[in-house]
Amino acid sequence: MRSLAALVLALVFPVAVLAAPNMREGLWEITTQTEIRGGPAMPNMGPQTISQCFTRQDVENPRSMIPAQSGCSIEDVESAGERVQWKLQCTAPIPAEGTGETLYNGTSFTGTATMRTDLAGMKLEVATRYNGRRTGDCRPGTNP
Asked: Do 13 and 103 contact (CB within 8 A), yes or no?
C-alpha cells in the first residue's frame, strides 16, 4: 500500500499544474494531505510540503512539467475558467484509475485527486487534497 500512496503523491503534484489557466511563475509552496481508505488501518501520513520553482516556460506549457510516469496517462483534461479536471489511468506499477480537479487563483490553487485500485483483493481508494501558494520569485539553486 505504501507504493500506491507514493504513486499518488508523485502524480498529484505534476497534475496540480496541468493546464493551469491562471498561475504565476515563481516559487511555490505545495502541501498535500493523503488518506487511504478500504484497507487495513494505515498511520496518518500527515501533510507533505515541498517548494517548487515554476518558470515562465513551465506556466506557458504546463504539460512539459509532468515527469514521465511509466504506465500512467492523463486523459480527458477539461479546463473551464479557473477549474481544471482530468482523469488518470495507470497500468503499472499498480493498476489504478482516478480523477482530479484543481481551482486556480493566480497566486494560489486548491484541489483534490482520488485514485482507486484493487490490490490483492482489497479495493482501495486514495484521496488527496492539495493546495499551493506562490511565496516569491525563484532563487538561484532552486529547481529547475
From this structure: no
Could you give the CA distance from residue 96 to residue 87 in angstroms, rounded to a whole number? 11
Max intra-chain CA distance, the chain: 48
CB 74 within 8 A of CB 15: yes
Q: List, for residues 53-91, the tens digit of each pLDDT value.
A: 888 887 776 665 555 566 777 788 787 888 888 888 888
- Kindly state the helix (H) or strand (E) to which residue 34 belongs, with its residue range: strand 26-37
What φ, ψ does residue 65 adopt, rounded to 5°? -85, -10
Polymer length of the chain: 144
3-state secondary structure of 20: coil
d(CA 129, CA 102): 10
